[in-house]
Amino acid sequence: MLKQLVLAAALAAAAIPAAAQASPLPAYPFVHVNAEASRYTTPNIGALDFVIAAPDPDPAQARATVETRIAEVRALLQEQGVPLEDLETRDVRREPGRNRAGEATAQELRVSVHLIVRDLSKWRAVVEPLLDKPNLVDFATSFDIVEREQFEADLMADALRDARRRAEIIAKGAKRKLGAVTAVTPAGVKNVGATIGLVRADIGFTRVKAASNVDSRNFLSVDAIKLVQPVDVVFRLE
Predict the structure, then answer these.
(1) Interatomic CA distance for residues 111 and 109, integer angstroms
(2) Which carries the bigger pLDDT value, residue 13 or residue 143?
(3) What CATH class is the domain 24-41+147-237?
(4) CATH number, domain 45-144, options 3.30.70.120, 2.40.110.10, 3.10.290.10, 3.60.10.10
C-alpha cells in the first residue's frame, strides 16, 4: 500500500507542468528592494510592570504582606484618579528569592502587577511613590500611542514610497522601466537574500544585553519613542 501511495505521488508530480512547480526566482525580470520608514513621536499612554515579593517564611504572613501592598497601590491610584480597572494582578507563585548579589535566598511569595496609565501627566505622581514602597521589585516600563493604527498606516505609506524610489534608481541604472508591484510584505522576508544570492558575507546579527544597574529614578521619565516600519517589495521590470 505504501509503495502504491509513493508511486501515485510521483506520477502526480510528474503531471504538473514545470512552470507551475516551485521556483526560487520569479519567471520574469524583477527587482527586489527593502526599505523602511521611521518617526519619533511623544507617547500618550504608558504601562508599568512590577512584582510584589514577600519573603516571609510563613505563607499566611506572606499573603498578608502582598494584600497590604496591593491595597496601598489601589489607594494611590484612587488618590491620583487612575481607574482601578487599569490595575491587574496575576501569576501568583512561590519561588526562590534573590538578594542584591543575585544569590538564591529562601522562598518568597511573588505576584506580578501590570498597571496602565492613560494620562501621562499623572505618570510621575503614580510611579514615584511605588518606587519607594517596600516589597516592590523588578520594575519595567513601556510606552505607546493610542493612535498606533493610523501612525503605522502613515509609516507604511512612507516605506512604500521609499521602496519605489530605490527601485526606480535601480531600474534606471539597468536601462529598464519599473513595472507593477508583484509582491510586498510589511517586514523583512526571511532568507530571501540567501535564496537568490544577495546576502553579503559580512552581514550578521548582534544581541545587546540590557544593563542590570539601571537607576530606578529613570522610570520616572517619559521619553519620545521611535516607531519603525520595514517593507520588502518586488517590482516587475519591463
Answers:
(1) 7
(2) 143
(3) alpha beta
(4) 3.30.70.120
